[in-house]
Design a protein that fits this description.
Elements (H helix, E strand, L loop, with lengths): L2 H20 L13 H4 L30 H19 L4 H4 L11 H5 L5 H10 L11 H17 L7 H11 L14 H14 L4 E3 L1 H10 L7 H10 L5 H14 L3 E3 L5
Antiparallel strand pairs: 1-2
Helix pairs in contact: 3-6, 3-7, 7-8, 8-9, 9-10, 9-11, 10-12
Length: 266
């Protein structure tokens, strides 16, 4: 092989390898298309990844683990979202959302201990867009919804947020709120769809499962005008708009397999 051609091929392979190494991992790879019976198979917290918490494994909702359970996962998600908010409101964000977490730790250390992650930067970038924000979509409402879900998960108080607030928390933690609010387990597919949109808001491409496709068609078609649909539409506007996701939803349902949705199409 001529030296020049070898150099071109090596350069192309190196660029491909670098792109693969640095590109965000696709959410749902390896589990998005699992059958319902497979997803209901008994599992332990140590066997469930953070990504899978978009979905609802009902047998896990009544148990917890101090290091691996839902409270620990929510605590990490809460710190990530507060840090992203502090980036977005650099002049006063850290002071505005300063509080003591449910385990007694101050989040000041979490805000300052590390550079912003790609997920935090993606959140800040998306929510810095010049789009009209209804009151429920303000930063205070988002942080409050996550804060309440963390406190409920940590204290086992048995209180229940309304479904709108549970959906907002699901979106901004990428964790299905049905784990914390059993009264909303009936809506776990809607909450899963919100959590799935949350992965896109964090800058990751994602496979669209069938349950998300059906929920998109039900909630984003422009016919429904209830708060759940409006919350989803508000966030979808930052990712390319309802029509884009309806196209992916119809494609997924027609093929019977998950379609890959880019993180951002603006």
């Amino acid at each position: 092989m001529p030296a020049g051609m070898a150099s071109v091929i090596n350069h192309a392979v190196s660029r491909h390898y670098l792109s693969w190494r640095t590109s965000p991992r696709v959410w749902g790879d390896g589990f998005a298309d699992l059958s319902l019976s497979t997803s209901l198979y008994p599992r332990d917290w140590s066997d469930v990844s953070d990504d899978e918490l978009v979905l609802f494994f009902s047998h896990l909702s009544g148990q917890d683990h101090p290091e691996l359970g839902i409270a620990a996962r929510l605590r990490a998600a809460y710190a990530r979202r507060v840090r992203a908010s502090a980036i977005l409101r650099a002049e006063n964000g850290a002071n505005l959302y300063e509080r003591t977490a449910a385990d007694g730790r101050h989040l000041d250390d979490d805000l300052a201990m590390a550079p912003p992650s790609p997920e935090e930067l993606a959140i800040a970038e998306l929510f810095a867009l010049d789009l009209a924000r209804p009151p429920w979509a303000s930063e205070a409402a988002i942080i409050g919804a996550i804060d309440r879900m963390l406190c409920e998960a940590s204290s086992a108080a048995g209180k229940t947020a309304n479904l709108n607030e549970a959906l907002l928390a699901s979106i901004h933690t990428a964790i299905n709120a049905a784990y914390v609010y059993p009264a909303h387990a009936f809506a776990h597919e809607v909450l899963a769809t919100g959590a799935w949109f949350g992965t896109l808001l964090m800058g990751r491409p994602a496979l669209m499962p069938l349950l998300v496709a059906h929920t998109c068609i039900d909630c984003l078609d422009g016919i429904r005008q209830d708060p759940i649909s409006e919350i989803l539409k508000f966030h979808v506007a930052r990712l390319g708009g309802p029509s884009l996701f309806l196209r992916y939803a119809h494609k997924t349902i027609k093929s019977g397999r998950s379609s890959v949705v880019p993180a951002r199409r603006l």
